[in-house]
From TrEMBL:
<dbReference type="InterPro" id="IPR051623">
    <property type="entry name" value="FTCD"/>
</dbReference>
<dbReference type="GO" id="GO:0030409">
    <property type="term" value="F:glutamate formimidoyltransferase activity"/>
</dbReference>
<dbReference type="InterPro" id="IPR004227">
    <property type="entry name" value="Formiminotransferase_cat"/>
</dbReference>
<dbReference type="InterPro" id="IPR022384">
    <property type="entry name" value="FormiminoTrfase_cat_dom_sf"/>
</dbReference>
<feature type="domain" description="Formiminotransferase N-terminal subdomain">
    <location>
        <begin position="3"/>
        <end position="180"/>
    </location>
</feature>
<dbReference type="InterPro" id="IPR012886">
    <property type="entry name" value="Formiminotransferase_N"/>
</dbReference>
<protein>
    <recommendedName>
        <fullName>glutamate formimidoyltransferase</fullName>
        <ecNumber>2.1.2.5</ecNumber>
    </recommendedName>
</protein>
<keyword id="KW-0808">Transferase</keyword>
<keyword id="KW-0963">Cytoplasm</keyword>
<keyword id="KW-0290">Folate-binding</keyword>
<dbReference type="InterPro" id="IPR013802">
    <property type="entry name" value="Formiminotransferase_C"/>
</dbReference>
<dbReference type="Pfam" id="PF07837">
    <property type="entry name" value="FTCD_N"/>
</dbReference>
<keyword id="KW-0369">Histidine metabolism</keyword>
<dbReference type="GO" id="GO:0019557">
    <property type="term" value="P:L-histidine catabolic process to glutamate and formate"/>
</dbReference>
<feature type="domain" description="Formiminotransferase C-terminal subdomain">
    <location>
        <begin position="181"/>
        <end position="295"/>
    </location>
</feature>
<dbReference type="InterPro" id="IPR037064">
    <property type="entry name" value="Formiminotransferase_N_sf"/>
</dbReference>
<dbReference type="GO" id="GO:0005737">
    <property type="term" value="C:cytoplasm"/>
</dbReference>
Length: 299
């Protein structure tokens, strides 16, 4: 397999499809890049795009997309349930095939430097690309969100890795990193009490003593008046989707609340879903090789 890199930028726009379409057109216009998925959420006011290609074209597409987002999205007017610091909130690189995490780290740092100094957008490196241990976790980079970072960025400990020591006037800041595949997984509760979602999120996230590879927040979906536990499953092999789901369901029951649905944002490895199917169907002796599509792909 060729050296491929997956890129999953998140843009702070989920309510204006024409804006998302223009950003997508920018990415699609780069030769050697293939857009695999694009999803938007109006409550989060966010778009998640997944594209793939060899390192050079992928980095170029990410840069051009960030530049286009800076032209189209004004963070002074942005509101949404999801934490964010900029028009292009986050750009992670994920190694695929023969590419390595080290190569993705170098790619992230090169892109961060370009965005910082060519676009005038402050850039924070996170996860495997971070140069400071306290910035490895994306939530630490996003602390205070766009509004809080306006003043926090002036403090020595919040200075960006690249770019100016102040937010771009409309595009804010951007986090660029390298990481393994994760699953963005949201669970909706049968209540409008966001305090319950926040309590459940605290009980499962690693930083609060829950599952070590889980990041979670409680947010309110205003358009539906539904509280949501929004989750990043950073290592689905360590903590499976069904374990996360069952834990949230159990915690919700303590408050007399039901789980009314869940959703996957963007793409996920097939294995993550098959693990859940294996669990709920109580399969005996099941193997991934029994999946028709996998056998076809392996030929």
């Amino acid at each position: 397999m060729a050296k491929l890199v997956e890129c999953v930028p998140n843009f702070s726009e989920g309510r204006r499809p024409e804006v998302v379409a223009q950003i997508l057109d920018t990415i699609k216009g780069v030769e050697g890049v293939r857009v695999l998925d694009a999803s938007t959420d109006a409550s989060h006011n966010r778009a998640v795009v997944t594209f793939l290609g060899e390192p050079g074209p992928v980095k170029n597409a990410a840069f051009l997309a960030a530049a286009r987002a800076a032209e189209l999205i004004n963070m002074e007017e942005h509101q949404g349930a999801h934490p964010r610091i900029g028009a292009t909130d986050v750009i992670p690189f994920i190694p695929i095939g023969e590419s390595t995490m080290e190569e993705c780290v170098e790619l992230a740092r090169e892109l961060g430097r370009e965005i910082g100094y060519k676009l005038g957008i402050p850039v924070y490196l996170y996860e495997a690309a971070s140069t400071r241990p306290e910035r490895k976790n994306l939530s630490a980079v996003r602390k205070g969100e766009y509004e809080g970072l306006k003043t926090a960025i002036t403090r020595p400990e919040r200075q960006p890795d690249f770019g100016p020591p102040h937010l771009h006037p409309t595009a804010g800041a951007t986090a660029v990193g390298a990481r393994p595949p994760l699953v963005a997984y949201n669970i909706n509760l049968g209540t409008a009490d966001v305090a319950i979602a926040k309590a459940i999120a605290k009980s499962i996230r690693g930083s609060s003593g829950g599952y070590p590879s889980i990041k979670a927040l409680g947010v309110m979906l205003e358009d539906r008046q539904v509280a949501q536990v929004t989750i990043n499953v950073c290592n689905y092999k360590e903590v499976s989707l069904h374990r996360v789901f069952e834990t949230v369901k159990t915690e919700a029951a303590r408050y007399g609340v039901n789980v009314i649905g869940s959703e996957i944002v963007g793409l996920l490895p097939m294995e993550a879903l098959l693990d859940a199917a294996d669990f709920y169907l109580r399969l005996e002796g099941f193997s991934l090789n029994q999946v028709l599509e996998k056998r076809l792909l392996d030929q």
